[in-house]
Amino acid sequence: MANPIFREKLQAGTFFVVPGIQDMIAAVIANKVGFDIVYGTGYWLTASAWGLPDAGIATYTEMRNRMETLARTSNAAVIADGDTGYGGLLNVHHTVKGYEASGVTAIQLEDQEFPKKCGHTPYKRLIPAEDMVEKIRVAVDARSSEDFVIIARTDARESEGLDGALRRMEAYAKAGADVLFPEALHSEEEMRKACSVLDRPCMANMSNHGKTPVPPAAVLAEIGYAYAIYPSLTSLAAAAAMEKALLDLKQQGIGQPDGLFDFTEFCHLIGFPEVWEFEKKWALAK
């Protein structure tokens, strides 16, 4: 069941931030911090599960399973990266139905050819705007709940320029998209123009070291975005911390460095108290 909090936040018009979640460790840490919306990132969930690039290699079934696991683990509403819908119109229909049944609250669909590429990497190829319009219409028709949000993304900035990307966004809005996602804009000036001319809520993709600047949240709010996702933040922070710990172990033999997360607390975050209560109950029942 889609969580109404996402649509409520969009209607309230107050800017908010959404962290990307690459695995269930990140999910339980986000639970602790207290985010009420998180982003199931295709790039980083694929990297963490299979060690593969975000290039359309992971299948719909595999990604649905990952999103379902995230929706179960997270206390927050989940925005799910649905790539291209994994094929044509029938695939989009089944992807929307499947993701909604998996417990996510929103799906993001993009106008690349299948298989897709990460939006901040080269060699992206787009489908005609008319074909993406049909995908959005199918997606809107496929959802069961009005609380389930359809996000339309375009990767046209690189090949068609900003004006071409905005024309696509306008067409996708008319097709029924609830949120517009002009990917990989190159400057704050472009970001301001997109937010000023588009009449649906716009989201920003704050991909660290990608093509788009990453200004503070207050600046994004002033520009006019409804919200921003930070898909790579936890992944790159975790990778840097792991590399440092492993180098310390290899080079200096340090296996107990300062700054580790408390193990007992993590046991509680991941659900061990319920296991211990079960063991206590049934051990005493014997």
TrEMBL record:
Pfam families: PEP_mutase (PF13714)
Superkingdom to which the source organism belongs: Bacteria
InterPro entries reported for this sequence: ICL/PEPM, Pyrv/PenolPyrv_kinase-like_dom, Pyrv_kinase-like_dom_sf
GO molecular function: oxo-acid-lyase activity
Gene3D superfamilies registered for this protein in UniProt: Phosphoenolpyruvate-binding domains (3.20.20.60)
Listed SUPFAM superfamilies: Phosphoenolpyruvate/pyruvate domain (SSF51621)
Keywords: Lyase
PANTHER family, alphabetized: CARBOXYVINYL-CARBOXYPHOSPHONATE PHOSPHORYLMUTASE, CHLOROPLASTIC, PHOSPHOENOLPYRUVATE CARBOXYLASE
The protein, known as: Isocitrate lyase/PEP mutase family protein
